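INFO  loader      accepted 1 record
INFO  loader      residues=186
INFO  predictor   begin
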Amino acid sequence: MASGSISLNHVEIAYDLSGSPSEKVVLLLHCFGSNRQYWDFHKEAFAGFQTLIIDVPGHGQSSLYDVDCSLELIASDISSLLDFLGINKVILGGVSMGGMISQTFTLKHPELVSALMLINTTCFISEDMHQLWRERSQQVLENGTDAVHDVLMRRWFTIDAIENEIPGYKYLSKTFKNFNPVTFKN
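INFO  predictor   done
INFO  writer      dumping tokens
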């Protein structure tokens, strides 16, 4: 596996690239508050593919944007990463926020996508949901990620998963608690 990062004009994106270059490339995008290790639980499912897994800007080892962030900007930067790596076509998969980025990327760069996997995502965010996230963001900026941790974990996991501390819950709970609150500004 090759790990690296690319510095663009306004952000640095960290990535892992594994598998044979002769295989089709699967590009995987994680959810908000996570990082590229999110996909560790699923690596066996992608045997036989080359996989490119990134830390979405503001997550994991990728830097925060020094400009206002948008889905379009992230999509453009992913295109630059693919160009840097010499990858001209991907099977693109994203969960939640990663799925929203995947949809935007596909609309902006359809020639780079051979297939699309959308997991627990949406193509539209209502004004009510925007307002809810603005309120949560303010809580996090004032009080840290603990302010919304339990609410989000109950939204993302069943009570049984939380009580039994399944590996996915334990990972995301820990990752979210260590998440940089400044990311909520964007």
